[in-house]
Specification:
signal; iron; globular; CD2-Gal4; DNA binding; heme binding; five-stranded mixed sheet; 3% strand; Zn(2)-C6 fungal-type domain-containing protein; mainly alpha
């Protein structure tokens, strides 16, 4: 656009000159050229000298200001001791900024991604708003082509689809024999080195490069292509590959400058060698692709394709996937994919292997521990299969830590393709945004103070920010993630297993240091001069060059201050209460067996409790869960439901239809045709709703694996089942999105409901079941109980077809994993969809016989979200099996000893679960917890309240002795819930909570109401009142997102506690308050309305 503007100005000057009578064409053309050149120069100077400092919308972002003239920080970055040194210095200077801005050559602006939230938006949520920078395309594109690296939009999605199957974990595992074969060749080279030289010295980097090249070429093309040649060139593949990717110095200089100043046309030998090698390389790969295409087509016609399924290489599977597309990509695009696969897979894998070996050499104890793990596994299974190799925990830890400390990729530059808002920052089109893995991997705010220490054990319990998937950027993330991740990891693991099981490695010179040039301990002269120290001993390089005496001070051990984490103390107190309760119950049970009938508790015993009549009534209401006398403004019960479980009821079903009343007019919803036309063209809306669903709904319910949403941008041009799933998902997201309107949500929901019958009868598959679950969930949240249960039980009915198999991990297919995950999502929905207690599930599967959710997640992909969901399922399974029994209608009629035993059993199960909670879910005061962690602990304490609640009934003489202990424990759990909610309020995250949290807040508020009634002293009364209103505030905040559910809960809480005498206590407390904010005034108005309107 800028060049066009300058061209138009120059053209205008030519026209003006020609309009003069004495003007000539040469004169006008010369003037136009001068104007164009001057305009371009002025424009460039303006962009370099004025725009970044006075006009740019990004100039206020934090970043270094000590720029050099016209090159910004470019020269400093090139001259730094390590490639990441300056970046890490900036990270420590601006740890909380989402982006760090610096200027590069020509004072061009570069934004460095500096937070996990910003990384998530750049790499996943808004990934397709970015393209590769034009200079990078010119720099690398002439070597590796377009391929998956530089493709955008639909073309990139198509290439992802084509490569997904060939590079999936099951396909890669079939390549294990190739990996083992090349790893054994490496062992032979080690043996040869030992035989030729008693010292057995080898150059690791060269060996790893050669091994990685052999592995990747054989896995991709079924041949070692080092000596492969085409019919049109005498050059071998390796010669071409080296000439293109590792040119001589002049060739490197031309390659670097060519994107800015076209130099490839110069008739010099460096250019001729590059063009000759590049042409030959592409020629031989084109021949190979054409030959393989013909072979695949021939095998397909002859029916031999399936017979060779286990022996197919990547290229064959790639061609098959391409032929399966309606409109496949060209052979030239396949050539690009091969070149990118060989170059990226070879270089990065070799680098990762080299640095991992370096770490094992530097830390012999770790090498020994890894060898012991591998040998122990080989003792059980001499020829390890891929699943066993993948499951070795310490091997995984070693590799993960190596990739963290020495990431094989230095940076990933992107260019904004359209104006976009990331982490609250408006980034203009054309801006370069770069992700630097080291800025994440070596960030103390994410990985802790020991970020520079190589510590594989940190991966056993990553918590907080370190557990975020975007805290590991070795393979990038999101749609642009490295498609060969599974191949690279299995290759690295296989080579390490071969090396560690046969050789012990030592270094000739272990003090290589990290490539970044950082050292953990500087010598005293360097420390005082504030100069960089390489940490070498006995004399560092700086002191040696300055001829200074070098000495190191002994490391000062700092005593770590011990503190007691509040949640940890609370956990210990909970355990003491549970054990005490169990002990008390066993004593009471044994004594009651020998007591005479006259000594048994009588109905009058509740009067002996230290509570007044209002508290006894409140305890009875709360413990018996009979809310029939809590009526709404219409005088009808606010809750409905059989037995001791209930749910909100907005409408009552009449005996006969009243024909005299006119039917309410139907909601106005846009026509199906209009809806489909608008949705098909509104890509930004679909991407927003998908991101909102994945960020704020799916982490809690695990309705769907995110990979199933790869084609959601194509909606409504999907098959029927996916149309149903995506429309249900978009509807659910639109209802709670701050951007989408209720009309949009209704339109999506209407479209989804219109497909229900067809999908249920004709398209039995997992997406249909998932769609039904999402619709049922949404209807329950909107208190549309009739439709909620309709779709709910349709989903349960469809679950009869799940065919869940009990298989070892290594035998589970992708379908098995998806089926198990879907079951747990359905189970969780069934348990939390309404606030019911004591209602048995209708799901025809026993959760105890189903593989746990967490076992279906790959160890390297386990995060706090997966752990939280798995533990949620465990909690609700315990509630269903052991706690809901106490809410059944016949529980009160059982003998006291039997009730006591049921209560004790439930106590013990909750205690056992508490001991098994994964340490990664614990909340530390040093690291900001993830929302899913907080939600889990709120659920945990809410279920504890559910456990104690049935024994709080003072009219149950057999259980009355439990009331003081149970009430104290319920209060402790309600306090814990309130404290957790306050922590979320402080970080403004309440609005992102799931709707089932409302039921937990509701129960905590009722417990605080009980305390308010019980406490007659002003201090205790004020504390309980404050906690109650804190819960009520949260319900008010949630009403902005989950309107119907919150607004159904809030009046009920007020009316229930009002019946206990709540208003009198509140009045006494409020008289002491000097100030009253608008919120509390609004609460009083609501109380007044309810009091005036209730019959």
């Amino acid at each position: 656009m800028e060049s066009l503007s300058v061209a138009l100005v120059s053209l205008a000057s030519v026209v003006l000159v020609l309009r003069q009578t004495d003007a000539t064409v040469p004169l006008a053309a010369s003037l136009g050229l001068v104007v164009y050149v001057v305009g371009r120069v002025v424009l460039k100077l303006g962009k370099a000298l004025i725009y970044p400092f006075y006009i740019s919308k990004l100039r206020h972002l934090p970043g270094p200001k000590d720029n050099q003239f016209l090159v910004g920080q470019g020269i400093r970055l090139l001259k730094a001791a390590g490639p990441n040194d300056l970046y890490l210095e900036w990270v420590r200077k601006w740890p909380d900024a989402p982006f760090i801005r610096h200027l590069s050559f020509g004072n061009s602006e570069v934004l460095l991604v500096n937070s996990l939230d910003a990384a998530r938006e750049v790499l996943q949520t808004k990934a397709y708003s970015f393209v590769k920078p034009s200079f990078f395309v010119k720099l690398v594109g002439e070597i590796v082509g377009i391929g998956i690296l530089f493709s955008v939009g639909d073309q990139h999605r198509q290439l992802r689809r084509i490569t997904a199957g060939p590079l999936s974990k099951p396909s890669v595992r079939k390549m294990l024999p190739i990996f083992k074969d090349k790893a054994r060749e490496l062992s032979v080279e080690f043996d040869t080195a030992i035989g030729e030289d008693k010292n057995g010295v080898v150059e690791v980097e060269a060996l790893m490069n050669r091994t990685a090249f052999k592995v990747i070429s054989t896995a991709l093309l079924s041949r070692d292509i080092s000596e492969f040649r085409s019919s049109s060139s005498p050059l071998s593949f390796e010669e071409c590959y080296r000439a293109v990717l590792v040119p001589p110095l002049l060739g490197k200089l031309i390659t670097f400058l060519n994107p800015f100043i076209p130099l490839r046309w110069l008739p010099i030998e460096a250019n001729r060698a590059f063009i000759r090698a590049n042409t030959a390389l592409r020629g031989m790969l084109t021949e190979l692709v054409e030959e393989r295409v013909q072979q695949v087509q021939q095998d397909k016609k002859s029916g031999q394709s399936d017979e060779k399924a286990d022996t197919k290489d990547f290229l064959t599977k790639l061609i098959e996937a391409n032929l399966a597309e309606k409109k496949g990509v060209s052979d030239q695009m396949l050539v690009d994919l091969i070149i990118q696969g060989v170059s990226a897979g070879h270089e990065t894998t070799a680098g990762a292997l080299t640095w991992t070996v370096y770490a094992l050499i530097k830390y012999p104890d770790m090498q020994k521990r890894l060898r012991e793990e591998i040998l122990a596994a080989q003792h059980k299974q001499p020829d390890l299969d891929a699943a066993t190799i993948d499951s070795l925990p310490y091997l995984n830890n070693i590799i993960n830590e190596s990739l963290r400390v020495w990431s094989p990729s230095l940076m990933a530059p992107w260019e904004v393709g359209e104006d976009v808002v990331i982490a609250g920052v408006l980034i203009p089109k054309g801006t370069t945004v770069t992700t630097i893995p080291a800025m994440v991997h070596l960030n103390p705010a994410i990985w802790g103070a020991d970020v520079d220490v190589f510590n594989p054990d940190r991966w056993d319990s990553t918590t907080g920010a370190a557990a975020n998937p975007f805290a590991s950027e070795s393979f990038i993330n999101g749609p642009r993630t490295c498609p060969g991740r599974a191949l690279a990891l299995l290759e690295i693991k296989t080579v390490l297993v071969e090396m560690m099981s046969n050789f012990s490695l030592e270094a000739v010179d272990v003090d290589v240091g990290r490539s970044s040039g950082r050292t953990l301990l500087a010598c005293e002269p360097c420390r005082k001069r504030k100069s960089k120290c390489d940490g070498e001993k006995p004399q560092c390089g700086s002191c040696r060059s300055h001829e200074l005496a070098c000495h190191y001070e002994p490391a000062r051990t700092t005593r770590r201050q011990k503190y007691w984490d509040r949640d940890y103390v609370q956990a210990l107190e909970d355990q003491v209460r549970l054990l005490s309760a169990s002990l008390e119950q066993s004593k009471e049970s044994s004594s009651s067996q020998s007591a005479s009938p006259a000594s048994q508790p009588s109905p009058s015993e509740p009067k002996q409790l230290p509570y007044g009549p209002k508290m006894l009534k409140a305890l009875h209401d709360f413990g018996s869960v009979k809310w029939a006398d809590v009526t709404g403004r219409d005088g009808l019960p606010m809750l409905a439901g059989p037995g001791r479980f209930s749910f909100y009821s907005n409408t009552l079903l009449p005996t006969f239809e009243d024909g005299t009343k006119p039917s309410p007019p139907p909601k106005e919803v846009m026509s199906k045709e209009t809806f489909l036309l608008e949705v098909a063209s509104n890509l930004s809306l679909k991407q927003h709703l998908k991101a909102h669903f994945l960020d704020n709904i799916n982490p809690y319910y695990k309705f769907i694996d995110p990979v199933w949403l790869n084609f959601s941008d194509l909606f409504p041009h999907n098959d029927t089942a996916l149309q149903f799933l995506y429309s249900a998902l978009f509807a659910a997201a639109a209802y709670s999105s701050p951007v989408a309107t209720r009309e949009i949500a209704d339109a999506f929901m209407t479209y989804a409901e219109g497909l229900v019958q067809q999908c249920y009868l004709e398209h039995l598959c997992l997406p249909v079941l998932q769609g039904l679950m999402i619709i049922a969930w949404q209807k329950h949240v909107m208190l549309d109980a009739a439709k909620g249960h309709l779709y709910h039980y349709m989903a349960i009915g469809l679950s009869n077809h799940l065919k869940i198999r009990d298989l070892p991990a290594q035998e589970r297919t992708v379908n098995d994993v998806a089926t198990i995950k879907t079951f747990w999502s359905l189970f969780f929905l069934d348990r939390i969809s309404t606030p019911k207690l004591g209602a048995s599930t209708a799901i025809p599967w026993d959760p105890d016989n189903i593989t746990p959710y967490i076992d279906t997640v790959s160890p390297e992909l386990v995060d706090v979200s997966a752990l939280s969901f798995d533990h949620h399922c465990q909690l609700y399974n315990i509630q269903q099996r052991y706690i809901d029994v106490m809410y059944s209608p016949n529980f009160q009629q059982r003998p006291a000893a039997e009730k006591q035993a049921i209560f004790a059993k439930a106590n013990n199960e909750m205690l056992a679960l508490r001991k098994k909670i994964d340490r990664r879910l614990y909340i530390s005061r040093n690291v900001k917890p993830d929302r899913v962690q907080v939600v889990f602990w709120i659920t945990y304490h809410s279920i504890l309240i559910n456990l104690y609640r049935p024994v709080l009934n003072p009219k149950d003489p057999g259980m009355v002795h439990n009331i003081p202990t149970a009430f104290r424990s319920s209060t402790a759990s309600a306090m814990a819930i309130t404290r957790l909610l306050k922590s979320l309020q402080a970080s403004d995250e309440i609005k992102h909570l799931p709707p089932f949290i409302i039921y937990h807040v509701f129960r905590a508020a009722l417990v605080h109401g009980l305390n308010l009634i019980a406490a007659e002293e002003a201090g205790g009364q004020r504390m309980s009142s404050g906690n109650f209103w804190s819960c009520f505030r949260v319900l008010g905040e949630l009403s902005g997102i989950w309107k119907e559910l919150s607004e159904g809960t809030m009046p009920f809480v007020l009316m229930a506690t009002r019946g206990w005498g709540f208003q009198e206590e509140v009045g006494g407390t409020e008289e002491e308050d000097e100030e009253e904010d608008d919120y509390e005034a609004g609460i009083n108005d609501l109380l007044g309305e309810l009091e005036g309107e209730v019959v």
